[in-house]
Amino acid sequence: MRIHHLNCGSHCPLGGALFDGASRGIFAHICTHCLLIETADSLVLVDTGYGLQDVRPTAGRRLAFTWPLLLNTQLREGDTAIRQVEALGYSPRDVRHIVLTHLDFDHAGGIADFPEARVHVLASEKAAAERTRRGFITRQRYRPAMWDCVRDWRIYAAGGDDWFGFEAVRRLDGLSEDIVMVPLRGHTLGHAGVAIRTAEGWLLDAGDSFMSHGELDVRPHCPVGLRAYQAIMTSDRQARRANLERLRALQQDTSAGVTIFAAHDDISLAALRGAAGSQ
User: Fold this and answer.
1) The domain containing residue 78 runs over which residues?
2) Which DSSP string do the residues of the chain spell out, in sequence order?
3) For 59-68, what is each residue's pLDDT tens digit?
4) Number of domains into which the chain is organized
5) Which residues form the Metallo-beta-lactamase domain (predicted)?
6) What CATH number does the domain containing 21 carry?
């Protein structure tokens, strides 16, 4: 198994370090960290970022104007998952599975670029995205046109198995038990982490369960801009706080051998790319 760490969408909001904790200029840089996993018989994407229909000016616009405007989203075709898959020498048809942390616009936009892929998601997330689209935030975050084309959904109830004390779904249809969905309700009602067992230990893509690596520190910290965005987008604050505390405890348990990252943390993306390149 080989894992590629992709940035499938860059947000550059006004505010610099107030958002990313590092930028010296007036604009921040916030990635959309997706994974491309090479298994023995296929490719697996964990989240898809933005898709071709989002970045092409001549395409029908599926994105709401609100978040791309506020986040100053840089929509570039070269950043889409499909173009990065092709740059690695693969065909989009080789992507047979897409495992989603959630269905927000910046995580699900590329689904349509892989029409032959089987799409895995928690049942509570699909229900929240399709049947309970009440309220301004919900209508802005969930854009059903992004996944209307899916022919092969695989929907899972939360729980049933155990992963380091978390509920887990270990038997994803067509995938080995080296890829596990870990329900992490909070950011959305059906949000999940995706854990991958590697030769070096477990890697947990925690999606938007938190925004900055500093939130897992013994003394947690997070740039104020990201804290504000997370507060706006959180669907269940109590569940998010509880899961964040559990993730923090897991991160600090060095015997577990689990590496945890968030989807919008540039520092984690750079570190994991560096680690992958050194192997």
Assistant:
1) 2-278
2) -EEEEEE--EE--BTTHHHHS--SSSB--B--EEEEEE-SS-EEEE--BS-HHHH-TTSPP-S-SHHHHHHTEE--GGGSHHHHHHHTT--GGGEEEEE-S---HHHHTTGGG-TTSEEEEEHHHHHHHHT---SHHHHHH--GGGTTT---EEEE-S-SEEETTEEEB---TTS-TTEEEEE-TTSSTT-EEEEEEETTEEEEE-TTS-S-GGGGSSS----HHHHHHHHHH-S-HHHHHHHHHHHHHHHH-GGG-EEEE-TT-HHHHHHHHHHHHH-
3) 457 888 888 8
4) 1
5) 31-264
6) 3.60.15.10
